[in-house]
Amino acid sequence: MNIDLSQMPIIQIEGADLGYRTDAEPALKDITISFYPGDMVAVIGPNGAGKSTMMKSIVGLIPPLKGKVNVHGELHGAHPDCVSYIPQRESIDWNYPITVREVVMMGRYGKIPFYKSPSEKDQKTVEDALKRMEITALADRKIRDCSGGQQQRVFLARSLAQEPHILLMDEPFNAVDLATEKIILDNLRVFKERHVTTLVATHDLSLVSENFEKVLLLNKRIIAYGNREEVLTDKKLQLAYGKKAIYF
Known about the structure:
It is built from 8 helices and 10 strands. The chain is α/β, with parallel strands linked by helices.
């Protein structure tokens, strides 16, 4: 019997409360949702809605308080190499003395035995990722000396080099120039073509309406999930943001 892997969920969250045990209440309650290979999903909602918490739970940084978070049918954290996570820039220590090329090479570490140096293939994969993100000229620059938009390109290049099954990006469009925004969006489509499941948290609803087919709307729970036409309605947005919110 042939099994169509594209019809099997790559991420399954079932009856889960997500958050930190030290918090009085979970950031997200009673979450049940599945994502499939090639899904390109915008994750939206007000501040504190639980967008970052969901991503950290999928990557395995936060265990579920209740329920299950499965990747490839196994509990969270079982497949760390297949998940690439780009957190918000504010959560990264940019003072670490490492070059752009070295950051991108980190994407290959899960594929290199600890006793070996990067192979010619690894080096070529890194150079191709730098070229695709148009940052080859920055390869020897310290990551801390790059602009915000350049740093986002570097981390997306690292994800390209990693060749993940799942890409999680938390607010990648914050404080970036239009050229970087276009490069990010173009490469998200490349990931989709490669059947990578991509979740992108953002506050820019205009960008979402123009570039994403699927939208997940959160506010402590799932308000709506589906095609953008079904989710980006006044009624559903008001449930998440409140009646006085301006959406577009």
